[in-house]
Amino acid sequence: xxxxxxxxxxxxxxxxxxxxxxxxxxxxxxxxxxxxxxNQMLDDGSSAMDRMVYSYKRSINGFAxxxxxxxxxxxxxxxxxxxxxxxxxxxxQ
Amino acid sequence: xxxxxxxLGFPRNARRSLPTEGEVIVGMLDTGVxxxxxxxxxxxxxxxxxxxxxxxxxxxxxNKIIGARAYRQGRAGLSPVDTAGHGxxxxxxxxGRVVEGVGLAGVAAGSARGAVPGARLAIYKVCWDDFxxxxxxxxxxxxxxxxxxxxxxxxxxxxxxxxxxxxxxxxGSFHAMRCGVLTSASAGNSALTGGxxxxxxxxxxxxxxxxxxxxxxxxxxxxxxxxxxGASVNIFPKLEKAPLALPIxxxxxxxxxxxxxxxxxxxxxxxxxxxxxxxxAGAAGTVIVNAEPDVAFVxxxxxxxxxxxxxxxxxxxxxxxxxxxxxxxxxTEANFNSEAPIVASFSSRGPNLISxxxxxxxLSAPGIAILAAWTPLSPVSGNLRDNRFAAYNVISGTxxxxxxxxxxxxxxxxxxxxWSPAMIMSALITTATPMDPARNPxxxxxxxxxxxxxxxxxRDPGLVYDAREDDYVRMLCAEGYNATQLRVVTGSDGTxxxxxxxxxxxxxxxxxxxxxxxxGLNFTVRFPRTVTNVGAPGRSVYTARIxxxxxxxxxxxxxxxxxxxxxxxKLSFTVxxxxxxxxxxxxxxAAVVWSDGVRQVRSPIIVHTVD
Lengths: 93, 611
Prior knowledge:
The complex is a heterodimer of chains A (about 90) and B (about 600).
Chain A: E1 8-16, H1 29-41, H2 48-51, E2 52-56, E3 60-67, H3 69-76, E4 83-86, E5 89-92
Antiparallel strand pairs in A: 1-3, 1-4, 2-3
Chain B: H1 4-7, H2 18-21, E1 25-30, E2 65-70, H3 86-95, E3 99-104, E4 107-112, E5 120-125, E6 127-128, E7 131-133, H4 134-147, E8 151-154, E9 156-157, H5 168-178, E10 182-186, E11 204-210, E12 214-222, E13 227-231, E14 239-245, H6 254-257, E15 266-269, H7 276-280, E16 285-289, E17 303-306, H8 308-320, E18 326-329, E19 333-336, E20 363-366, E21 370-373, E22 392-395, H9 398-415, H10 421-430, H11 445-448, H12 455-458, E23 463-464, H13 469-478, H14 483-490, E24 513-516, E25 523-533, E26 540-548, E27 553-558, E28 561-564, E29 570-579, E30 587-595, E31 600-608
Parallel strand pairs in B: 1-5, 1-8, 2-5, 8-10, 10-11, 11-20, 14-15, 15-16, 16-17, 24-31
Antiparallel strand pairs in B: 3-4, 6-7, 12-13, 12-18, 12-19, 14-18, 21-22, 23-25, 25-29, 26-28, 26-30, 27-29, 30-31
């Protein structure tokens, strides 16, 4: 939409996972860090809990979240973020 | 699969390392699996390897399927059971048990088996019917790597590649590689729709689809006795002398056939029809003029696919016959195809649109009319109006080729558990059987990579081209990624980039060599390479032979003799290619073949001016 608040799922890739966490564990340090970073970026009062789709925390570092284009841009310029890109749809071959 | 492994020279009694084959765990990112298929029986298999950290969520595992997870936008409680069939098909191609006497209503019958019947499977359901989201794929890679899989099979992709760190599969497979896990991926099915190889990361294997010597065909016999043979998996009984009809406005799409009746007729359809329209219009059968006459499809009604020139012959009959034109569609039979292997018309070609100096696809494997396990939850034609279900089905695609390579990688891994992903990839590539450019026109290695997979030879390749994370980082530097980004990717402060221009992407120690030249301009390109001796335990001497098939280039190798004194010793050489290709859209192939008199280590070279 014109005011750019339309959200879509973006992948925020943050490279190497320094603190691999067991999938059974609860809110791991990596996950907490993803939520904290996301909360700092959200500017419409919603919380990371509302937007987060995945927190990648076992062997890769990053997360997937529903973001606006403006939030995407803010995250893309953040230290520790390698790339922020729209989650593509792939097909079976 | 009932024919392809034998066609690859990989018989049921191939030499196996059974104790370690049971230690190999293959992760399948796909549509899940049907656990009750006989292909996934765990009879005789011991418990999973002790190192395994996977989980069986909403799924009953056994000692064959030792892990199963499902992903859909973060939701919990999803079932990894296969509702589409694709995932069961690929998983059984990789590691299916030997199941005697199976086929699709007798078609393609035989003993179905995977490459590594003793290996374990871990299921990561990331596709739902035909929808696979990037965020789900990356979540599956995150788990599969941490769970402890050894090889990942990824029969998923897109029409075109994306920059490496904007592609879930390239990111996931990079982190898999860092943990010693090779990812084998489909090259893509977009050759006829303007696509190029979709999975192009140099740390993943990209597999094109080719034919086997078993061709599934059906006959259309016209009223004047003329027989037209076309690709088809037609398991319906013979359709006898039905009237021929053309769709009134030339289309067979359901809405354009609506309100017309073709009851009891054979309807001729243009390419792109999948039989749904004719089925709904009450047709007794359909003949589809197809851009892919090499591919046999399962249709929801009696059907044959033919090429354009065959359609012309049929029209000639229709125009000259005095009586109403009729035809009969016979059930499918298997013909011997002496031309095979030929790359499928749909199989996405190179060049690598992200890194033109890295040849993709890497190799070819059977991907046409492959019989393998299926799910009873999906009709054999995939058409929801079709009420035919089966335990084994015949489908085609680079999705089917990929698991052949995955299975071969798992087979190599079972003999060499300590090999890196790049070493396994190299073994598969340098031992591939060269394919015939005359029968596979349009690009030489850009069409079929190093050639057809040869699992038996890959077990003992002699020399391998190894590459580790630092090698890929240097290549990424040459591709324009900066040291800051790459330090985040590797998590290592020591990650640095050489001075600008000091390295090129094709400096990567890759088993093949590709160069994108400018038309009409002279070029000289050097490929520094290092090979690791994994062949004979004692001393061994390899000498290089240059195979060049084109007038426009000169290939030199220095040194031409490598004398190894111990296993795992590394020695280096440089291949220099120079010349000029006169026009655009051209290619010239060559190869460097190292041999110790027993083993052949073949590295194809391709120079092209394809934009």
